[in-house]
Every structure is written in structure tokens, then in C-alpha cells.
Write a structure and sequence with these properties.
Order of helices and strands: HHHHHHHHHHHEEHEEHHHHE
Number of strands: 5
CATH architecture of the largest domain: Alpha Horseshoe
CATH topology of the largest domain: Serine Threonine Protein Phosphatase 5, Tetratricopeptide repeat
Shape: globular
CATH superfamily of the largest domain: Tetratricopeptide repeat domain
Structural class: mainly alpha
CATH class of the largest domain: Mainly Alpha
Number of domains: 3
Helix content: 40-55%
Distance between the termini: 54 Å
Number of helices: 16
Strand content: under 5%
Length: 350
């Protein structure tokens, strides 16, 4: 418990005036530091407070402060990763911080290759209804990550996706829609699967539009951004920024692309630039069934990368005019092929 007594001190200024700041109770400072921790825009916001004085250093490490730290407080750069950073994340985990459980779980599972501890930390966050942790565990179950192909558990993956979708996770909703549509790990229900896919697209558009408007401070009568780089072209013709990458995924991507993380020969990273997950065994991820040049850990990554870049790079666009006659001769096959390429659902399993 935090001591509720006022700190007695004889500190005075040069003019002999008593410093009233020292009389503030610890409870009040812990509350203020907790607010700062929850709204920190980077780890330095909290670290700079710790360096202010011994009292702040002590109170900033209080469990009530660490338990409220938001995801931005764990946006750690690769060059700053060290044993003390690892200990700080462990302190946050011990304080019950759900974001720390998820972030450290991802780092342990994929970067440190400590599969058991990483999965345990993600499960700890999932138990507390953390959508990203639930979806990440679903990806692990669908791919059998960290084990062999026989370690896949499709039913568990569907159950985890269902829980994450109920909590509003759009990629989990899309994954669940594909599972129902294809009968993958669950009884096939094509109409319900299609409905979930449409709902996921609608939620994605609404979510990205709202977040981009807040981020760019756009007015209602200005629907598009002036800079189209790294943007998504929505179904309604709006150029909207891609969703912000979670600090855990950013860390994974930087860890492996910087060369600090080692990937065994033949293994690949997910082609979605905002994911960062590596394969844990050969041919673990799905690959594009048309060009075969890209691979994805999940349907969510595949759908996002399709909109960001692969839609303009995939081979079908160069082949459509050549295959027009074939499409007219076989209407059913043509419809399926166009729908497959148009929606970006051109991925097959290993």
C-alpha cells in the first residue's frame, strides 16, 4: 500500500520559504504518475520522470503506476533493447499490466524463441480479454507455430477468433468469416461467413476513417488526405492512411529486418510490413496462390497487404486481358477467379 502520510521535510529555498511540493502525499503523486503512464506517447515520457528525483524514481515504479502503462509506453526501439528494458517489462507484467503481457509475450515467443513462456504471457493477456492477444494465439493455433504441422489446432483457433471478434477485433472477424465460408475448423456456413466478411470490411472502413480524421485533424468536408503514400484506397474512393502498427509488431519487424534477430535458412517473414511475425518452420505461412511471391501468417495480414501494395503487384492484372476469352467460355470459373483476385483472397495453405 502507498503511505498516505505527508512527507515531512526541512527543505527550504534560498529565501527561506518552505517547498510545498514536498508536502504532497504519495497517493496523489502515484495517481498523477498513473495518468501520465497511461497517456505516455513514448517510453521516454515515463523514463524522464524517473530521472527527475529519487522520490519520482521510487513512485514511478509503483505497481499502480506500472499497471496503467499504455501500449505507447512499450514502444521500444531495437537500439534501446537491453537487460534493463527486459526487467522493466517484467516489472510491468508483475504489476498486472495487460499490454506488457502481450508485448513481452510476442518478444519472448518470436524474438527470444522462448515459445512456452511467450505463449504463457500472451495467454495471461488473453484471459483478461485482450483482443490482440486472443488473435495472436489464434494465429499460433492455426499455423502450429513453434511446433510441427501436426500441432495445428483449428478448432482452438476458431474459438479464439470468435472471442476476439466479440471484443471488436476486425482481423479476427475477417478470419472467422473465412473459416465459416471454407469450413476451416468449423462447420461450413457460407452465407454467415460472407456476412461476417462484409461486416469486417464495413468496420475496417469506419475504424480507419475515424482514426485518420482524429490523427490528421481533418474536417468533415475533406474526406481524403493530401499525401497518398502508404494509404489504402477504400471501396468508396477515399485515400485513407493504413492502420497504425502496434508497438509489439513494430518491434518484431525491426528486430528481424535489422539483423539483430536470426531467421533460419528457408524461413520467411510475413509479407505484411506491419506484422513482423517470422515462420517457425518451413512453409508455415500461407502463400499467394497466383504469384507465389508473398506469404502471410493470417487472413488479416493478407487482406491488409492486398490493399496496401500487392493488389498492384500480383500477376493476375497482367493476365486478365489475355484470359478474357477463357472467362467468357467458362462463366462460373471466371466469376470465382475475378472474385478471388478482387477481394484479395488468393491465398492457399502449404
Amino acid at each position: 500500500m502507498v503511505c498516505n502520510k505527508r512527507r515531512r521535510t526541512s527543505t527550504t529555498t534560498a529565501a527561506g520559504i518552505h517547498d510545498l511540493f514536498d508536502d504532497l502525499p504519495d497517493d496523489l503523486l502515484v495517481l498523477l504518475l498513473g495518468k501520465l503512464s497511461a497517456n505516455a506517447s513514448s517510453p521516454s515520457d515515463l523514463v524522464n520522470v524517473m530521472l527527475t528525483c529519487k522520490r519520482f524514481n521510487r513512485l514511478a515504479l509503483h505497481p499502480m503506476v506500472l499497471s496503467k502503462a499504455g501500449p505507447k509506453a512499450f514502444e521500444i526501439r531495437i537500439k534501446n533493447w537491453c537487460e534493463s528494458t527486459h526487467r522493466f517489462l517484467k516489472l510491468c507484467v508483475s504489476a498486472g499490466n495487460v499490454e506488457a503481457c502481450y508485448t513481452l509475450g510476442m518478444v519472448e515467443f518470436y524474438c527470444m524463441k522462448n515459445r512456452g513462456n511467450g505463449a504463457s504471457l500472451m495467454a495471461k493477456a488473453a484471459i483478461k480479454s485482450h483482443p490482440l492477444a486472443l488473435y495472436s494465439l489464434a494465429i499460433v493455433q492455426f499455423n502450429g507455430s513453434g511446433g510441427s504441422k501436426s500441432d495445428k489446432n483449428l478448432r482452438a483457433g476458431v474459438a479464439l477468433c470468435g472471442r476476439a471478434a466479440c471484443l471488436g477485433h476486425i482481423d479476427a472477424l475477417r478470419e472467422l468469416g473465412h473459416c465459416l465460408q471454407d469450413g476451416y475448423g468449423v462447420a461450413q456456413n457460407a452465407s454467415e461467413g460472407r456476412r461476417l466478411l462484409i461486416e469486417a470490411n464495413a468496420r475496417e472502413l469506419a475504424s480507419i476513417t475515424n482514426s485518420s480524421l482524429r490523427r490528421l485533424n481533418c474536417s468533415v468536408d475533406r474526406p481524403s488526405t493530401t499525401d497518398s503514400s502508404g494509404s489504402l484506397l477504400s471501396d468508396f474512393g477515399y485515400n485513407i492512411p493504413a492502420p497504425e502498427v502496434h508497438p509489439a509488431n513494430q518491434f518484431l519487424r525491426d528486430w528481424f529486418t535489422s539483423g539483430r534477430g536470426f531467421i533460419a535458412e528457408g524461413l520467411r517473414l510475413c509479407s505484411n510490413s506491419g506484422c513482423g511475425r517470422p515462420e517457425t518452420r518451413l512453409h508455415e505461412f500461407r502463400r499467394c496462390s497466383v504469384c507465389g511471391n508473398v506469404n502471410y501468417c493470417s487472413r488479416g495480414c493478407q487482406a491488409l497487404d492486398w490493399k496496401l501494395q500487392h493488389k498492384t503487384e500480383c500477376a493476375p492484372f497482367d493476365r486478365w486481358l489475355i484470359e478474357d476469352d477463357d472467362l467468357e467460355d467458362d462463366d462460373d470459373d471466371g466469376v470465382n477467379r475475378i472474385e478471388q483476385f478482387g477481394d484479395g483472397v488468393n491465398v492457399e495453405t502449404e
